[in-house]
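fwd from M.: "can u put these together and see what the complex looks like"

so here's what she sent:
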Amino acid sequence: MALTQPIGPPESDATGVPPADEGRVTPAMAQYVEIKAANPDCLLFYRMGDFYEMFFEDAEVASRALGIVLTKRGKYLGKDVPLCGVPVVRADEYLHRLIALGHRVAVCEQLEDPAEARKRGGKSVVHRDVIRLVTPGTLTEDTLLDAGRNNYLLAVARARMSSGGEDAQFALAWIDISTGEFRVTECDRASPSAEIARLEPGEIIVSDALFSEADLAGYWRSLPAVMPLGRDVFDSATAERRLASFFAVATSEAFGALTRLELTAAAACVTYVERTQIGKRPPLSPPLRESAGASMAIDQATRANLELMRTLAGDRRGSLLDAIDRTVTAAGSRMMAQRLSAPLTDPAQIDKRLDAVAAFVADTAARAEGRSRLQAAPDLARALSRLALGRGGPRDLAAIRDGVLAAAELARALASLNDLPAEISEATQACRKPDGMLAAELSAALAAELPAFRRDGGFVREGYDATLDETRALRDESRRVVAALQARYAEETGVRILKIKHNNVLGYFVEVTAQYGERLMATPTFIHRQTLAGQVRFTTTELGELESKIASAAERALGLELEIFERLTASVIAESADIKECAEALARLDVASALAQLAADRDYARPDVDDSHAFVINGGRHPVVEQALARDGTPFVANDCDLSPPQDSGAGRIWLITGPNMAGKSTFLRQNALIAILAQMGSFVPARHAHIGVVDRLFSRVGAADDLARGRSTFMVEMVETAAILNQAGERALVILDEIGRGTATFDGLSIAWATVEHLHGVNRCRALFATHFHELTALAGRLDRLHNATVRVKEWQGEVVFLHEVVAGAADRSYGIQVAKLAGLPASVIERAKVVLAKLEQEDRAAPKGFEDLPLFAVPSKAAQEHPAADLLAAALAALNPDDLSPREAMDALYRLKEQAAKTRKS
Ligand code: ADP
Ligand code: MG
């Protein structure tokens, strides 16, 4: 955000040196202005003693955002200076709120002791500078992060348009600085949004040019934190050099076969990290290339629809992730989310993961043992990152120790598993990698109880360092002397309630109640310092001497502890590669054993995943609905599904599912999509048996979904999304269409649904499930050889509908809409009236000739064929009118409506 007038650089000198008239601008203010000018798009947290202060517009913004008091301090260029501040000890909490609101914060610290500055003369300012920019994509603090989710910084780079007008290529690079992960991939024009939907980055950086591109402006605005940056950050000519220098290697050959565009995106990431971390290096892994197509492509709408990570309402509870995540560590939970959002497409890799799950399913004891060891493993990756960035505390060192120890024990425990599958044996090897000496050293050094911050001191164990022990003894001894002194003073003065106390202003002092004040004043020993309402305070020469002894001993002890901290941190960082591998291995083992636990708890089966186009699910269940029903003791009705190509034709089947509202159509559709996702992420699946030929793209659309937020009509959204499917789905895709065509008038909708089914069958030739309330569509099965009609059974019993949730071959005879409306509590009079209307409409319908069944595929329908439906509609509308029931006004309205409809019929 741009600064408004009053905070511009001082008039006299653009470098920020205070103007000659020092009465107007204090040196501290000049320093502030200079630092702020260098960080124009951040709120500046300006350290002053125990507070971070904000001035001018920053103060106004922050006080509004945080609900803290806005005050004034002094004047700058003749105007009041707005000010607000947050205490340093609570800074994290305020940072969290500001970041969540989309702000970026520059943290400016005092880089010397104020006493040093005073030595330079009365007017000298404490040396300060920005030590870190806090942005949404570069967080490391546990208090600012969700333990179970990655927080990515994503860079999007685009190739210069080729003159041939080819589709623009994009490269994406993303890092999680809190764990060190670093990935890159390339994709075509259509895919960046799907990748962004998968990664859900905390922050996205793009070049100014890409940011201001007209086509993309709306898209960038729809994302939470997009930061445009100058050309230099995305300069492809310097990319390789910047990467190589970050990783301190001679050439980027170390990064394998990254393309020029991928190097550009990756370099943008590291440059941004350097700019925000200011001299500190997170332990990033070298960028790892993800080849396009390595994971199932799932676009944003499909992810939302299938409620993979959260429900449509935005809650984690009720999502697929929530239903399947049994991990016991934060790193495991992050990996579970990653795998769920990017199911694999290579059957060999999928099988490797499934082997590990199967091993833990088979060996209950190893699973239980493994999971209890994992529970003791803290978040190694994040602790390591904080230590490397100089933001670590004693508890991070302890986390490294405990994580490394737990990993070693886990590896030992799992050695007993028979026939270790590759995934597990690789992980256990990685668990053994960190040097045992490091954990032993940390165990010896760290005290049992650890403070949150190293500045608190007291974290080094007694007996670890002889000099530290001596200094501490001196400090504590002096404290004992103070206690003895109190007793002696009480004795000498005869004031039994005399106390020696300590505060930050006076240091140590003697305190007595007001009535004894006079008595102490009369002695030469006691020097008066302060008189309060009830007490009088004194100091003595002896106390002053003791105090400085204590202070210097305490200071020395803390200094020694900090030195030990630095040494231990350095030895941790020296092993960061092994520690990271170990952390990742723990996460893998957590995920495998958690999925095994899930499979055992909920009776899941190992799927067969291969390169065929098969899709056979026997006894499939919906993983989330099943668990929700189980809580009420209701059983879930398992259903089969078979979309495999008839012979070995390659083209899959389409199931057209009809059935009344509430029968279970949507549930059936989704469960099959979710089973495919689970199988390909390497999980067992809620089915008796599943055979799935790898799905490369998954689409799921629900008719008339709400997208009011982006201001498009729901029907428009439905059609845009349907268009995307019809244009993109290939033979390996799986398409789930739920009530497409619902968002418009009946005949429009039916025609669109009709043509969509034909297109899927004839052109896309993919496996598909299509639920519809248009029973007319079932007639298509007569002509489309791979179309199969299925329906969800219901029973009518004493005029009420009973849902059996059982999917069987065939078409629904009718919709039971009125029965469902009755269940929903519509007034009886409305229900009765609706029955009469329906009976009439059905009578008319039977009389009218059917025009659909002989439409030629993809041909323009004949005029005659088109006229019938509209004429039907007019007849139905007429039949529904009961002149005896109408008021004169209603009769007029009806007449106008009918005329309008008749006009439309003629036009079409
Ligand atoms: P439709 O799409 O046909 O209107 P839904 O799929 O939304 O119906 O299902 C309606 C409700 O029926 C679900 O919320 C669920 O509680 C229940 N249900 C659906 N399928 C099953 C099933 N296979 N077994 C048990 N209950 C089911
Ligand atoms: Mg439905």
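replying to her w this: The longest helix spans residues 541-574.
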